[in-house]
Amino acid sequence: MAVVCKLRSIIPEVPNLSPPSMFRPTAFSTLRRGFATQLLPTSKSPISPSLSFFNSVTGDDTQIPTYRVLDGVGKPIEGAEIPEITRDFARKMYEKMCLLPQMDTILYNSQRQGKISFYMTSHGEEAAIVGSAAGLDFEDEALAQYREAGLLLWRDYPLDSIMAQCFGSHEDSAKGRQMPVHYGSKEYHFHTISSPLATQIPQAAGVAFALRRTPSRRDKSIAACYFGEGAASEGDFHAGMLLASTIPSPVLFIARNNGFAISTPAAEQYHGDGIASRGPGYGVDTIRVDGNDALAVLAATREARKRCLKGGRAVLMEVMTYRVGHHSTSDDSFAYRARSEVEDRKRIDNPIARFRLFLESQGWWNGEEEEELKTRLKTEVMKAFKKAESAPRPPLGEMFTDIYAGEMPWNLKEQKEELKQLLNKYKDYDGYKKELAKFTKKGEDVMQ
Amino acid sequence: MTVREALNAAMEEEMIRDEKVFILGEEVARYNGAYKVTKGLLDKFGEKRVVDTPITEMGFAGLATGAALAGLRPICEFMTMNFAMQAIDQIVNSAGKTYYMSGGNVPCPVVFRGPNGAAMGVGAQHSQDYAAWYGSVPGLKVVSPWSAEDCKGLLKSAIRDPNPVVFLENEMLYGISFPMTSESMSDEFLIPIGKAKVEREGADITIVAHSKMVTHSLEAADALAKDGIKAEVINLRSIRPLDIDTIIKSVKKTNRLVTVEGGWPGFGVGSEICAQIVESEAFDYLDAPVERVTGADIPTPYAANLEALAFPETSTIIKVAKRALYRSN
């Protein structure tokens, strides 16, 4: 791409690196020494006589290690340090980790009953999402992919707002314009979800650039950008990483490596060492984390965030987890993976159970509280669900708004006017009456 | 003032006026831009506001979109609009739709600008006109200026607009000088997006053009005048919103319409104008079929003799205008 025109501009400017004395005969030894130690003015690569190739960022052909704090029964592994955490903070994390699947189950089933068009669950990724959300600041700008509703729950985004979005009711802040799970809230610093994969990655570099440029937010907030290991195959990932590193900006890239991009297993998504191996290629501090260990994700996110702010630069976290649920309601994952594999993962490495065992070991949780929590959460979710289910849908006039900020263009005004005339003429006919009843204000906002 | 200087002045004035405005793209800073449109801006505003990027249209258009969503006002320069196809998802799907999808909560005030359409001798992949492409997208505004005055007034309006604006320049016009009025030299000179300009009044036939084709249309009008034909030439200025009212008014007066563009014929700007005219009351005023003068329906050839045949010239417009007037001489 871009060959002809770019050739015009790649004539290099003369670098300012070669002192004229290099070309004098008296400086011959300087020239020789320079030849021996420096490859090119544009490179600091040391010279080596060894004809060796490499294909590993660890230097010894092993895979990048995975940072973990808790073992399978919620005990710290040898050498691990438990991050600073209070009882209340840990309990809040646990509560949100439990709320997420409760909500998911109800909304998933509602799609199956035809009440909403689409849904995506977070089953199996509760620690990856809530753990990272808990390591961020409320004002950090989140640019999510689509499976990060847990971050909104952590920020106490109301269940009513979530349900209003999924049902596209009149209370949805996006006025029912996006398909389910495409949340967005300026107040909660959560950017509107964009369906095309990975567009949020270069945008995060831009959001972080803007944060650096805004005095009240500089050195206080970062952009936190989520994506899956599949999305990391998109050009946007590479473009976004490159941009965030060459135009330095505080972005925390969080790759949720959940093993599957719809049906494509991670093993077919890349031939190299996951997503983490790409970080150093872009000069970005990188860590791989056990995504089913809420404490490890929390600690890694806190440290990554600190580095983002301190250096004003990007950091990459690869969070290793397993998508227990189907990709979405449009997917049946048992067509490409064994039911037993999924059942095994749920049993062997359940992130919620692991964190609960840690809480119990600290004396911060017990069976009675567990029962009470489950009942309470279910009631809360059902209450919000029922409210949204029967709520009216957005007013008819919203068909024409927000396509442009500022004045409405003539073509939209014209269409709205045409609709107004039609409604005023036919509003009393049965077919029209029936249709208008579906809208808040029953079309009055257009007819006036 | 040349078109290049007018674009440069528009950016400089808006950068002085609003701290949030910044420019980014390949070689826009130290190299002053591939076509020197950003000349001197780095010296005046520094690296924080004139930002060189690596060669990834998808990346820096995405960065610009993100920065706009976060409250800044980026001007994103593409070395040519041909390369912006790598970034078209960001322009159409993100910049163009987020305001709507967010329920009117998150505007995206970004300008995507760069040379558009055929230059000379740059072949199939550097010669495309994107007016019709972007012109079809609700949520985007699309501007295709012709003169220096157009460029200054429209670029300033584009930068101040709360919406994403695709600003289609023309490489061959960059070095062309146009007279500027004292009004258009002012810091507060703005041309409204969505309004066409009647460059020359006439009663016999309406010629609608945009960008470089306005030059050819005016030349054609001069030649037609010698044969006693008074052509009205409309400079579209904006592709979206399209100022169809100005065209309707003109057609009702002249009863004949020829559209001129450098883009391809199919699903083009001329096709859209034609469709809107036949849907309007102007249809009853037409005394001849509407004719479209467009680029040839082929990828642009490199060889100079073939390339010359691929785009409308003044003589083509004269010929078609006469045909619309049923004139044989």
General description of the model:
The complex is a heterodimer of chains A (448) and B (329). Chain A is built from 16 helices and seven strands. Chain A folds into two domains: 66-390, Rossmann fold; 396-447, no CATH class. Chain A starts with a helix and ends with a helix. Helix content of chain A is 42%, strand content 7%. Chain A has helices at 3-8, 28-37, 87-112, 126-135, 149-154, 159-167, 200-213, 235-246, 266-269, 294-311, 339-348, 351-361, 367-389, 410-426, 430-436, 444-447; strands at 141-143, 223-228, 251-257, 260-261, 264-265, 285-290, 315-320. In chain A, a hairpin with a 2-residue loop joins strand 4 (260-261) and strand 5. Chain A is of the alpha/beta class and 448 residues long. In chain A, the strands form two sheets. Chain A has a five-stranded parallel beta sheet with strand order 1-2-3-7-6, sandwiched between helices. Chain B is of the alpha/beta class and 329 residues long. Chain B has two domains: 3-173, Rossmann fold (3-Layer(aba) Sandwich); 197-324, Rossmann fold, CATH 3.40.50. Helix content of chain B is 36%, strand content 15%. Chain B has a seven-stranded mixed beta sheet with strand order 2-1-3-4-6-5-10, with helices on both faces. In chain B, strands 7-9-8-11-12 form a five-stranded mixed beta sheet, with helices on both faces. In chain B, helix 2 (41-45) links the parallel strand 1 and strand 2 (50-52). The relative contact order of chain B is 0.12. Classes of the chains: A alpha/beta (448), B alpha/beta (329).
